[in-house]
Write a structure and sequence with these properties.
It is built from 15 helices and twelve strands. The protein has a four-stranded antiparallel sheet. Strands 2-1-3 form a three-stranded antiparallel sheet. The chain binds a DNA duplex (25 and 25 nucleotides) through α14, α15, β11 and β12.
DNA sequence: ACAGGGGAGACTACCACACTATGTA
DNA sequence: TTTACATAGTGTGGTAGTCTCCCCT
């Protein structure tokens, strides 16, 4: 069921670029994503061997197949009798890794063809480094090997959870590329989501891995995410308005990424976003019984996340990034939710308040369809908020903030 | 338990006019 | 079929007014 590369249409596609929503062969992947610094930051991963349309999340060692979450669920549910299959998390990458480097990341993939290195890609990496230096590329080269090992050896015997899928950040092979955990509907970049306070679940990652990762230096709040991409409010309104949580699985296309905006890299800490990746990206999956997560459970997960995060990372913040709080939590949806009583009432209330405030603010975020009209409205004089005819007396001038009388 | 008041938030109308969409010659 | 023109409709932001909900007394 191999599909052809969306770009050249000739080679068998191996890589899925979420940002481009495209399946690419290795050669085209390299060509396309070496074009500029922005495209270089697209996160890519293997294509699902089964459906050939979704990004693979796990590698089934028994079946020797890379599977998206949907196919993984379908293929390893209780009915299939394959629940015991050992699976390995597949991480995504950005940048321009060589075929050799890809082989290191995905050692299980035997047929990675050699792709000629592109000199301009190397140059571009240097450009990217400038932008990213604050956030991603702080890891020493000595960490690279370690990262790669981690990246390719996360074993699991069940769908990925926050317990066994560890956050992976930093650069590899001298900043040639970044190995990243799979993220859900990343807008265009290796966008990941992290509380300002580093949230590491493993000593391995507390042990110097983040020492140079000055997350605080970069304002990585989700408000900024919205400002950067200007998109999430649509999606999150859909997802989290009063009835929106119930429509969690009804995904719509993300608005196009505005390349004029300066993207920032944010690190995904809770990589179990992988687990719902296909559910999020595959609208049809809603009908799949294996994906039918009770709304109550989703709500409970939200409550859980509220208590589990601190500071800027409120429930509302998660909602802002367009990713369900459920997905950002350490617990996957198939885990039993925390007992209701385990959530501290105070923190939940405060989180709820912040969520409401954020929702309120978002209410006034309009999607501007015609920038020219907005530009004009921004400079038009008014009387009590109403536009006036040209030349008439006004009480408000957006330009001078003065009155004519 | 119920009613009323007050506050806060949500929602909508209003304005002029450049621009877009549609229809017609 | 293409082009030019006319006309109707739309969208833009700040403010004020109204409505709804919630909390307190």
């Amino acid at each position: 069921m191999a599909s052809l590369c969306d770009f050249c249409g000739k080679q068998r596609s191996m890589i899925y670029c979420r940002s481009d929503a495209a399946s690419l062969c290795l050669s085209c992947d390299r060509n396309v994503h070496s074009a500029n610094a922005l495209s270089r930051r697209h996160t890519r991963t293997l294509l699902c061997d089964r459906c050939s349309s979704q990004p693979a999340a796990v590698r089934c060692l028994e079946d020797n197949a890379s599977l998206c979450q949907n196919c993984d669920w379908n293929g390893h549910d209780a009915a299939s009798g394959a629940t015991g299959h050992k699976r390995q998390a597949i991480n995504c990458y950005s940048g321009c890794p060589s075929s050799a480097e890809l082989s290191r990341i995905w050692s299980f993939v035997m047929d990675i063809p050699t792709v000629a290195a592109e000199p301009n890609c190397e140059d571009g990496i240097s450009m990217m480094r400038i932008d990213d230096s604050d956030v991603i590329n702080h890891c020493d080269a000595s960490d690279d090997k370690r990262l790669l090992e981690i990246a390719s050896t996360t074993l699991m015997s069940d769908p990925p959870s926050g317990d066994n899928v560890k956050p992976l950040t930093g650069s590899s092979s001298g900043d040639r590329f970044n190995v990243l955990p799979l993220a859900t509907d990343q807008p265009a970049e290796p966008v990941s989501v992290t509380p300002k306070v580093p949230y590491a679940t493993d000593d391995k990652f507390n042990d110097g891995m983040y020492e140079d990762l000055c997350v605080d230096d970069a304002d990585l709040t989700f408000e900024n995410y919205e400002e950067l991409f200007g998109t999430s409010h649509i999606q999150t309104e859909q997802l989290f308005d009063d009835a929106g949580i119930d429509s969690f699985f009804e995904m719509k296309e993300m608005p196009p990424f505005d390349s004029n905006e300066q993207p920032k890299s944010i690190q995904l800490e809770c990589s179990n976003v992988v687990s719902a990746d296909c559910a999020m990206s595959n609208p049809g999956a809603r009908a799949d019984s294996s994906l039918c997560i009770p709304v109550r459970q989703v709500r409970s997960s939200i409550s859980h996340s509220v208590s589990g995060l601190t500071g800027e990372s409120s429930a509302g913040d998660h909602q802002d990034c367009g990713v369900s709080p459920m997905l950002l939590m350490g617990e996957p949806p198939w885990h039993s939710p925390c007992p209701e009583g385990s959530v501290a009432g105070g923190s939940r209330d405060s989180a709820l308040t912040r969520y409401k405030e954020k929702k309120k603010r978002r209410k006034f975020d309009k999607k501007i369809r015609y920038a020219s009209r907005k530009a004009r409205a921004d400079v038009r004089k008014r009387v009590k908020g109403r536009f006036i005819k040209a030349g008439e007396a006004y009480d408000y001038d957006p330009l001078s903030q003065t009155r004519s009388y």
